[in-house]
Amino acid sequence: MTSSYRNISALFLLLVFCAILPLDAQTPPQRTVAVTVDDLPAGAAISMTGTEIKEMTAKLLDSLRDQKVPAVGFVNEQKLYHLGEVDDRIAALNLWLENGFELGNHTYSHPSLNSVPIQNWEEEVVRGETVTRWLLAQRKMRLRYLRYPFLDEGRDIKTRRDVQAFLSSRGYEVAPVTMDAWDWMYAGVYEDARRRGDAALQQRLVSSYLSYTTTVFDYFEKLSKDLVGYEPRQILLLHANWLEADHIGELIELLRKRGYQFISLEAALEDPAYSQPDEYVGGGTGYIEHWAATRGRPAKGEPNFPQWVVDLSAEVHRNQLKSAAPGAVTNPTPY
Ligand SMILES: [Zn+2]
Questions:
Q1: Comparing C-alpha atoms, which of 35, 334, 63, 65 is closest to residue 175?
Q2: Which residues does 244 contact at the CB level (< 8 Å), separation at least 6?
Q3: Rounded to the nearest whole angstrom, what is the distance from the C-alpha of residue 112 to the centroid of ligand 1?
Q4: How far is the CA of 46 from the centre of ligand 1 (A)?
Q5: Where do the structural domains in the chain lie, given as residue ranges?
Q6: What is the pTM of this model?
Q7: 185 C-alpha vs ligand 1 centroid, how far in Å?
Q8: What is the domain class of 28-323 according to CATH?
């Protein structure tokens, strides 16, 4: 058989194969998503050494860079001030910039705007800028994004608008979220299992996390289509932890299979969906829920988070409290 004959045969087989595939399997939808990672340098920075934080960060960023996935990391600078480890912790942040990623502000110590006075919260924004702004300036970059802790944007519309005006006067753009599979809840249990060498539990958590992510994407893709008539450029919320460092490759593969391309946060925010009216006030949540509430159609039927993970997470937290020295601060609930 000549090589051109072989090529034609192969082409014919490919055409036959395509003809018997259902249409939606042939042309996956053109979907886009921006990746954002909160609680830098690490969700559990309090119980990690600077060396471990650097190791975790390097592993996470290697996968993102190899897969050509852009990302913005949001910093809580309070986590840098650990005696004898400040350099290591700042070096972990700098790895983001060295690898071509961007940093944003997540406030100094992660307070909720729904539970502290505006003035205190705004001071937290300013205090959270020091090191991040300096690191960005070394590379002629500007601190331009803010992510609200717990996604809380204020309990009433006046607070929300006043703080938005304050943020834009300081040159910030708010970084919303549309997709969130609560990786932080998995991560606490995963990191505990990792420390104990419980590989079976780690694997069970990863499977559950990926399957819950699928449920979340199914639900919000449909809800966003119902509300705004199309699937906007989505923005995914992740956190800096060992679960993502070890397994983000599997998450990226899962999303690629759904037809997602990975874009920058800047490109995602160009979607007109993010300029539509948003009158939402209340508990922290994603922007698809904001749009639903604003249209008088509050979202219902959100996927249930697996209860066994909630239970294990509470158990891990109780054990951390038991073994901590009196008065010590343990890891707060990150979000
Ligand atoms: Zn957070």
A1: 35
A2: 37, 60, 183, 187, 238, 251
A3: 10
A4: 14
A5: 28-323
A6: 0.90
A7: 12
A8: alpha beta
